Structures are given as structure tokens and as C-alpha cells.
Amino acid sequence: MVDTGELEIFRHSLKSIVEEMGVTLQRTAYSTNIKIRRDHTCALFDADLRHIAQHDIAPQHIGSLVSVVPRNVPDWEDDLEPGDGILINDPYKGAVHLPDVMLISPLFHDGEIIGYAANSAHHVDIGGGTPGGIPNDSTELYAEGLIIPGVHAVEDWEYDENVLGFVLRNVREPKMRRGDYQAQMGANRIGERRFAELYESHGRESVESYLDELLDYTERRVRAAIEALPDGEYRARDEMDGDGVVDEPVELVLTLTVDGDELTIDFTGTAAENEGPLNCTPAMAFAGTMAVIMAFIGEDLPKNDGFYRSIETVTPEGTMVNPTYNRPVAGGWEIPMRAGDLVTKAFADAVPEETIAATKGIVCNVAYGGEDPRDDGDYVYYETVAGGYGGRAEKDGMDAVQTHFQNTANSPIEELEDELPVYVRRYELISDSEGAGRQRGGLGVRRDLEFYDHEASFSLLTDRTRSRPWGLFGGHAARPARFYRNPGTSEEEALASKSTTKLDPNDVVSVQTPGGGGYGDPLERDPQTVLADVRDGKVSAAKAEAEYGVVVDDDGVDAAATTALRRELGDAAAEGGGERR
Q1: Which residue, of 217, 246, 275, 340, has the fewest CB within 10 Å?
Q2: How many beta carbons lie within 10 A of that of residue 227, not counting itself?
Q3: Per-residue confidence (pLDDT) for residue 581, from 0 to 100
């Protein structure tokens, strides 16, 4: 019998290993997307390919590592030596979209494999016709960049230059990409060192006993948490913008079935695979929903193989959550982001006090590149932009955050303007972008970039320009996404959510992300809280009246006028039998 105190110490020893791997990757990487935005994660697997620890910084990579390692390592394990590394990004071998490249390394102790260190990092460029790896009009995987099916790229902790050189010849800014690949190798080397130290400290028999108990303990906790949910089927659906090629909305459908201590996540009813890049692999669908499920049933629990044993994910073949071989997937992360919102919507009736209204609902992939006028060198950049979080039972949604599985950090203006030939002309919260509610949704973000003294390519691969983030329990929907070229001028041009635009020198592009939906009737919101939002510039006085029923004048809240207006708006809503819009 394993002592519970010792087990907890062992659990955190594993966690400290993957966290040190993550810090190593971040601090030695070259690109802003990894060293600042932290778009990477690290994990450990045991010799039986069970997932035993995960760096929590980028939950979206859970799906890729948990899927890729057990599926592909058996093809290599008999030939692996200490210091080896396998590089892979093939979506149809369990991975996600091509920019997320994984490195898998065996961990040896006394001449035997005792486990595997693995990491995934989002590379700013992976080749293909569009800088940044997010083509909006690809109709097959080959158009999206370099496909790495699993290659023996590292020997004795050194890259094979024939392999790495081939990769780097096919991407933009190869020097920066080289630095990021080296950082991935360094992270796994730290994993090897620390995991071997764990074996030396505890002994093989104790480590294996601890691992078995840790995974079983996690499973017991997860089953108990699922069993505490009301049994039943909970459904939700939403429409996404067109796929970048066919300009028609497509439907995403999710059913959650709670049956005792087991949970099924079922995408049956979801639209067929798309011609354009709005498709995701099963690993992506798993990651997007699992990150939100974890928040519901045990965010404090270890993230390992035991967590997934009582949860089944159904992704019907030939749909946009499980496309047929070599279909494009560049925009795939937009689907699991929306699926995360569908989890919270589906659980609204089951656990109303624990769920949230819709978030911004988009990853908001943005990429751009060109020739830097400062040194005539090529540049390429990728980022995602934050937005509003959904209102909650007792709290407003957060303003300007990455939601659900994203968790990537802000790209600071100073870093951006130093590294790239752009000026950030506006970076602000969008007034009135929230969904009104007793607890309002969070505000979206406006980010305007000026591309000075050069022509550039600017790509969007995102969504949510046609549908709005919904509210719950009487809360209102939020403002959708909007994108413009040269906003507020005679040359203003609206940009599609999936588009690539050739920019002239000194053009400005405005990225405006959605807010979050409101929770509860806005007429129940504290008038003084509405006043605070008006004074902060988050909500206009006009919207305060129209949706919150709060009349604001120079002295503050006009209490008598507010009482009368709220009565009037409430009566109108009762007569109309629906939400006030």
C-alpha cells in the first residue's frame, strides 16, 4: 500500500519535471510566440506509453501529445538509443495542425527505456504559401506546409543536420526556427536528467508502484466527480462561419452523456468535413472539450492517463471533427474552441451555478509577413488575440483574456514593435462589446497594426463574425468579431474571418474580437455596478439605459428614472415572451 503523503510528494515531483522542461523550452526559444506567448507544452510518459504528467501552461497541446506518443512510438521504440528524438507534426498520425511540431525522446536508466519526454511547440512558420502557416483557402493538407510524418531527427542530443536542414530550407526565418527546435531538444534533455534522478532516488520498483497508484487515484477522483453530476443527455449546437472556400455556415453539435461514473462526449450531428481548412483532427476535438471538462470536474486533479479512462470521445468519420485523409486542417483549432463553449452551454441546466455564458469563442489566428524595411530581411509573425470571457453565476466575465484551452500570453507592444516593422496604433477594450447580464460578459479587444514602409501579407483564420457569443438565463449575446483594413478612412474595407490580404505600405489593419455573453437578466444588475462600468468607459450611457435599464446622469444613477425604466422594460419583455433586444 502506497502512503498517501508519499504519493502526493511523488506526484509533485513529476509535475516539477514537466514544469522545468516547460521553462527550459520557453527561456531558450527564439520566437516571441514561444518565449513570450508560451505556445508550447511538455509531458512525460512511462515505458508503457501511459501519460503520467503534463505541463499545464497550454492545455490545447494535451490532445496532440496524448494521441501522438502512444500511437507512433511503437514503430520506433526497438531502434531508439539514449539521446534520440523523433520529430512529428502529421495530423493524420494523431497530431493537430502543422505548425504544432512535437519532439519525442526516450528516457533511459541502466540501459532500459523507462519512459518518454515529449513536447509540442507552435512554430511561427511551417512553410506553405502563406506566411505564418494559416492559409485560409487550402483545400488539401499539402498546401498548408511541411508534413513531418515522424522522422529520426536527433541522435545523442544533436540534430541530424540532413533532417533539420531540410526542415529549415522549407520555412521562413530559418535562423529563428532553428532556435526553437533547439529549445525543444533542450527541454527533453532536462526531462531525461530529472526523470533519471527520480528513479535513482526512489528505485524502479517504487516508481512503478507510485505510478500505478497515481493513475488509479486520478481515475477514482474523476469517476467520483462525474458521478456527482446529474445523469442525462445534455445537448448544445452552434453555427460557425464558412470554411474559407465555401461561404456558408456550418453546424457544430455536441452531446454530453452522464451515465453513473462515465461521461461520453459525442459530436454526432456535426457538419460533414469542409472543403476549406475549417476541419480538426480527433486529437484537437478531444483537447478542446477535455480542457473545459477538467475545469468542471477537477481542475486540481493530476492530468494523466487516469483522467481519461472514464471519458469517451466520439468523433464521427467524415465530419469536420474527423476528416478523411489529407483534408486541410489549418483552421482546426477554431472548432475545439467553440466546442469548449458548447460544453458550458450543454451543462447549463445540469450545473447552472458552475457554468458560464459563451466566451469570445475564437482562437483568432493572425499571421503576417513581408520584407523588413529596417534591414531588408524577411520576417513572419503569428499571434492570437484575446477577447471576452462569459458571465458567471456570481462574477462578471473577464475582459481581454484568452479563453478555455488557449492560455497563451499577451504579445507586449514593446516586444512587437522592436521585433517587427509594425506600429501598434490602438490596443484597447471595446466599449459595449459585452453581453449584458446580471453578471455581464467580458469585453473584447481592439488591436490596430500599421505596417510602415513596406508591403505585407496579412492573414486571418478565425470565426465568429456572423454568430454572436450567447448569453445564459436571460443574459444577452455579445458583439461578434470584426476585422478591417484602414478603419475609419475613405479606404475602409471589411475583411472576412478567413482571408489573406496584400497590404500597401502604411496600411492599418484592425482586429476586433468578440466579447463574452451575459449571465442572468441585465435588469437585475446592481445599478451602481452599471454606473461604475459607464464611468470606466466599458459600457455607454445609452446601452446602460437600453439593456440594463439604468439611467445615468451627471450626478450618478437617477434612481426614480431607473426604477420606472426597469419596470417598463420588464413589462415589455413579459409581453413579448422573449429576450429584450
Answers
A1: 246
A2: 16
A3: 40
